[in-house]
Amino acid sequence: PLKLVFKSAAWYLQAYCLEKQDYRTYKISRMREIQPQSEHFADGQFKAPSLEPPVKEAPALIALTLRFSPQLAYRVYDEFDQQAVTRTEDGGFLVRAHLPDEYWLYDYLLSFGSHLEVLKPKSVREQMARFGEEIAQKHRET
Q1: What strands, in cross-sheet order, belong to the sheet with 22-27?
Q2: CA–CA gap between residue 85 and residue 87 (Å, rounded)
Q3: What is the pLDDT of residue 142?
């Protein structure tokens, strides 16, 4: 064992694995039947590697125009810059945001459920419709 690290709401143990002759990171909540060992190592013999991934080029951003129902006020104000949010006449919200154009974008947008409508760009709107159709198909009775 080298270091305990708290990252993304979880504890991890960084350690050097003698069997694999390499560094490993173990999620504490997944560890079972831990047995203390009497073996000791000299301080500084091993150095824990960074848990941060190597810095990579920032992903391209995509300009989105989103319409949210009033029920999602708490998320809209928590997750978007206040200057990007406009209140609509029906009590909902219009949000203009720039988000990374990566696959996780769709998981994020889908997390708003039926309280979100993607207005622009058309490509994202169409992809959301395809995901919606796939979800509906899986939940229809056969």
Answers
A1: 3-7, 10-17, 22-27
A2: 7
A3: 67
Q: Closest Cα to residue 69, out of 112, 128, 115, 109?
A: 115
Q: Model-level pTM greater than 0.85?
A: no
pLDDT of the residue at 52: 67
What is the pLDDT at residue 34?
84
Say if residues 12 and 4 touch (Cβ distance below 8 Å): yes
- ω into residue 49 within 30 of 0, thus cis? no
Please list the alpha-helical segments (H only) found in 5-121: 73-79, 104-110
Residues of the chain predicted below pLDDT 50: none
Separation CA 108–CA 119 (nearest Å):
16
